[in-house]
Every structure is written in C-alpha cells, then in structure tokens.
Amino acid sequence: MNYPDHLRYTKDHEWIRVEGDEAVIGITDFAQHELGDIVYVEIETVGKNLNAHEVFGTVEAVKTVSDLYLPVAGTITEVNPALNSNPELVNTDPYGEGWMVRMKPANVQEIDDLMDAAAYEKLAG
Fold first, then answer.
1. Domains of the chain
2. β 101-105/22-27 pair status
3. Tens of pLDDT along the chain (125 residues)?
C-alpha cells in the first residue's frame, strides 16, 4: 500500500493535503482497495459548512456504499468534476486524479492533529 508522507490521514481512511489556504481530500489507497471497483461518487455538499467527521458524500463500489467523512471543519468549495464520468480514478490514482473535494478549512491547525503516514500505516496494518 502507498501512504505518501506529505499527506495527513484519518481513522476513517480519508487523506488531506494543504494547498495554500485550501485543502484537498480523498480516500486512501487502503480504502479504495478495500472497497473494490468504484462505480459512483456522490457529493452534494458544495458551499456547505461542515464539522470535522461529518459525512460529506458517499462512494459506491460494486459491493457496497460507504460514507465519506470530512477530516476537519470547513466549507466544501469544489467537487472533482472528473469523477462524474470516471469514478474509477479513485481506484487508479487515489492521491492524484482521484481526489474528491477541495475545501476551506475553518482552522488549518486542526490538520496537524491528524495522523502522519507512519501512524496511518500502523492503523491500516
């Protein structure tokens, strides 16, 4: 499994990357592997203020539907438009083209409290 060092991780298997005053969020390589072939991503929370650990959308795989949880509080600003026609990007490139949302964190410092790659790797096994 791949867990890039420049990202932070949650126990719910989301990752977050800071880009200026925004953050990009997706699911981890472990999560996409466990879900299997992803066939649909539904995110209808653009413009909404959400708390950390609130559901911001769902991902549907051949076997199951799973909730997506926001790592930190803030406002969803954008959904990855490529996922509408190519949800499998989450499987093939979970840390790149398979990102899910961009957000404005309410408090960027909260990101520092999330797991680093080594801690997440221990959690994921």
1. 8-108 (2.40.50.100)
2. antiparallel
3. 889 999 999 999 999 999 999 999 999 999 999 999 999 999 999 999 999 999 999 999 998 999 999 999 999 999 999 999 999 999 999 999 999 999 999 998 999 999 999 999 999 98
pTM: 0.94
How far apart CA 100 and CA 67 sit, in angstroms, is 13
